[in-house]
Amino acid sequence: MKLNDKSAIVTGAASGIGLATAQTLAEAGARVFLADIARDKGEAAAAAIRNKGHKGEYIHLDVTDDASIAACAEAFAGKAGAADIVVNGAGWGQITPFLETTPEFWNKVINLNFIGPMKLVKAFLPRMIERNTGKIVNISSDAGRVGSMGETVYAGAKGGIIAFTKSLAREMARYNINVNCVCPGPTETPLLHAVPEKHLEAFKRAIPFRRFAKPQEIADAILFFASSRSDYITGQVLSVSGGLTMVG
């Protein structure tokens, strides 16, 4: 799957699934802009991509800040014009029983995982519509498909991303813009490593493959949706979870 002459933005690209996705798209030939709030890690990741002979550039982005989103979109447009590929990878969660959560916690989770990604897409869509083409890939979670103990607010936000993906796909089909969603199960990322060990073992026992996903395995699914191989696919949700959630 080649992405030669394509320009892509990946949010949350300084680590985890976002980083693996940025590397994968760059290796496929895309010019990748790594957007993240962590400037040092983001610049280092972009430099590592360039050191391998691929195209990678860092753009600062805080998906909870409107001005930062607008600045990111303008910076991208100034360098690459309309985006061919937009990957919403930024997100955050924390295992906390619902009754112990606070409105402040709700706002943080919802802004990072739902409202921020919607605003990011809206900032990039007008130029994509003008050119009548593009791929949008939202990263949700299997928590948003089937729920997850201790992640009720996170699951709600990720479920919102799934519904947003399907509805936006209907609106954007007339502009030849594909909108799809990848739902990772538990994946070996810094966020997972912050989960208590007892929860990790329970997660692993529930997965038919008896292991967590590698970020690269999620990135491979994102590459498919970003490539021409998925030109006739839109509004779809792909679970990449080792069989954890086998539902219709």
Please give the structural blueprint.
Blueprint: E1 7-11, H1 16-27, E2 31-36, H2 39-51, E3 55-60, H3 66-80, E4 85-88, H4 103-131, E5 134-139, H5 143-146, H6 152-172, E6 177-184, H7 190-193, H8 197-206, H9 215-226, E7 237-240
Parallel strand pairs: 1-2, 1-4, 2-3, 4-5, 5-6, 6-7
Question: Short summary of the structure?
Answer:
The chain is an alpha/beta fold and 248 residues long. 48% of the residues lie in helices and 16% in strands. It has helices at 16-27, 39-51, 66-80, 103-131, 143-146, 152-172, 190-193, 197-206, 215-226; strands at 7-11, 31-36, 55-60, 85-88, 134-139, 177-184, 237-240.
Descriptive overview:
The chain is α/β, with parallel strands linked by helices. Helix content is 48%, strand content 16%. The protein has one domain (7-240): NAD(P)-binding Rossmann-like Domain (Rossmann fold, 3-Layer(aba) Sandwich), CATH 3.40.50.720. The chain is built from 9 helices and 7 strands. Strands 3-2-1-4-5-6-7 form a 7-stranded parallel β-sheet, with helices on both faces. Strand 4, helix 4 and strand 5 (134-139) form a beta-alpha-beta unit. The longest helix is centred in the middle third of the chain and has 29 residues, at 103-131. The two termini are 28 Å apart.
